[in-house]
Specification:
By secondary structure, the chain is mainly alpha-helical. The protein is built from 7 helices and no strands. Helix content is about 65%, strand content about 0%.
Length: about 120
């Protein structure tokens, strides 16, 4: 079954008349790895979508769409807070995320989206 990330990767390739081998070479990955991401057999590693965005010089809207697709294709996330308070907050979020209402999640998302850029850059 193709993932949302897989659909976006295929769209990028089709738009540029590339084959999977071309994309794999551009990303310094194997075609089997790219295929496994597309089909959901592997979860995208941290930073993968940023590598695609950079390699293909994606515009803001396309980059944002790829980031959302990558996040939706992940089964887990790795957080590395720099402070003790950040670690406490991340731990609490991890323990409670599945118990939060949609409204609570929307509020958290709104807070996190304020003036933010990917990877804190």
């Amino acid at each position: 079954m193709i993932t949302e990330l897989g659909k976006e990767l295929r769209r990028i390739r089709i738009d540029r008349d590339e084959k999977m081998l071309d994309m794999a070479k551009k990303l310094a990955k194997s075609p089997a790895f790219v295929s496994s991401l597309e089909t959901g057999k592997k979860t995208p590693p941290t930073g993968f979508e940023e590598a695609v965005i950079q390699a293909y010089s994606l515009a803001t809207a396309a980059a944002d769409k790829l980031r959302v697709a990558a996040d939706r294709s992940r089964r887990a996330f790795t957080l590395e807070p720099k402070s003790a308070f950040g670690r406490d907050t991340a731990g609490l979020m991890a323990r409670r995320i599945n118990d939060l209402s949609e409204r609570d999640l929307e509020e958290i998302r709104r807070i996190l989206s304020r003036g933010s850029k990917p990877n804190g850059k």
